[in-house]
């Protein structure tokens, strides 16, 4: 039940583009672990049986360890880079990894904040079709994402990326 609740919480946070202190970047496994810790602390605070609280705490943590070990062994997303806008109001986050054999790049726009950050998925570049080169902010409201075939401009306003995003960034 905890993984289902954790997945629902992660989906809601991603749907609304919010990242409470970076929590939207957590996978459903991490949400399950966080939920398990909260339930165990609640059981202990309410004077519940410590053996049950221990199992409630140990099960999600074991799932976390196994899940993250599996992801680390596969190396799904190897590297994370960040390109900040000139006024540091936005950051383009690029996660690189592998989809079977070819490289894959996941692109997100983030508006960092002290406690709450906002994130928008921009797209994905699959090495089967195109290759990502780099990104460079041209102004405070425009970033050029360089891929095979030239630069893809991404316009940004106070509400995030201006839609529609170029189809070349939807190759995944």
Q: Could you outline the blueprint of secondary structure elements for this entry?
A:
Layout: H1 2-15, E1 18-20, H2 28-45, H3 50-74, E2 77-84, E3 91-99, E4 102-111, E5 116-126, E6 132-139, E7 142-147, E8 150-157, E9 160-161
Antiparallel strand pairs: 1-5, 2-3, 3-4, 4-5, 6-7, 7-8, 8-9
Helix pairs in contact: 1-2, 2-3
Transmembrane segments: 31-48, 55-77
Keywords: Membrane, Transmembrane, Transmembrane helix
Describe the structure in your own words.
The strands form 2 sheets. Strands 1-5-4-3-2 form a 5-stranded antiparallel sheet, covered by helices on one side. The protein has a 4-stranded antiparallel sheet with strand order 6-7-8-9, with no helix packed on it. The chain has helices at 2-15, 28-45, 50-74; strands at 18-20, 77-84, 91-99, 102-111, 116-126, 132-139, 142-147, 150-157, 160-161. It is an alpha+beta fold and 172 residues long. The chain folds into 2 domains: 2-74; 77-169. The model is unreliable at 15-24 (pLDDT under 50).
């Amino acid at each position: 039940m905890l993984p289902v609740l954790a997945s629902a919480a992660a989906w809601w946070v991603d749907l609304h583009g919010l990242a409470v202190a970076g929590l939207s970047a957590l996978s459903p496994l991490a949400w399950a672990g966080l939920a398990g810790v909260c339930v165990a602390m609640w059981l202990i605070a309410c004077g519940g049986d410590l053996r049950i609280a221990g199992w409630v705490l140990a099960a999600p943590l074991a799932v976390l360890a196994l899940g993250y070990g599996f992801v680390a062994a596969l190396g799904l997303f190897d590297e994370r880079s960040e390109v900040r806008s000139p006024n540091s109001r936005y950051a383009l986050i690029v996660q690189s990894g592998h989809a079977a054999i070819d490289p894959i790049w996941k692109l997100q726009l983030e508006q960092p904040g002290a406690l709450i950050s906002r994130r928008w998925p921009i797209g994905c570049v699959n090495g089967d079709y195109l290759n990502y080169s780099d990104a460079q902010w041209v102004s405070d409201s425009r970033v050029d994402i360089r891929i095979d075939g030239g630069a893809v401009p991404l316009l940004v306003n106070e509400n995030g990326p201006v839609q529609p995003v170029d189809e070349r960034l939807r190759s995944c």
